[in-house]
Amino acid sequence: MQAVTLTSELVAAQVIDLVTFKRDGTPVHTPVLSTPHDGALLVRTHHTAAKLKRLRHNPEVTVAASYGRKRRGPAEPGIAAILPTDQSARCLQLLHRHHGLIGHAATWIRHLRGMQDVFIEVRPADD
What we know:
The protein is α+β, with helices and mostly antiparallel strands. It has one domain (8-124): Electron Transport, Fmn-binding Protein, Chain A (Pnp Oxidase, Chain A), CATH 2.30.110.10. The chain is 30% helix and 39% strand. The protein contains 3 helices and 7 strands, in the order αβββαβββαβ. Strands 1-2-3-7-6-4 form a 6-stranded antiparallel beta barrel.
């Protein structure tokens, strides 16, 4: 069996279109910052985001490189997992390293607003 890997477009992308699915199957598109790590994409969200509820019911997602809300590459299927909070500090370091000043500024604003970081790991689906 051949290992499934992330496309080079997804690895290089600063922003991806993360598509989660409601219980009725309706797709919900969300542009998010992503960071590649160990064959997966790390995605940051906040503790009250609706996407967390959707992922608890259905971990299947699609991801595509994006310019905000406009896709710039093909969608790839994936499986998402909500990471334990004890991994957040390490994930935040990786995000800051990948996104530089933008990542630090976004974190500062989010924490100023009282948002708690939650990280999602998206791995390629095995088809």
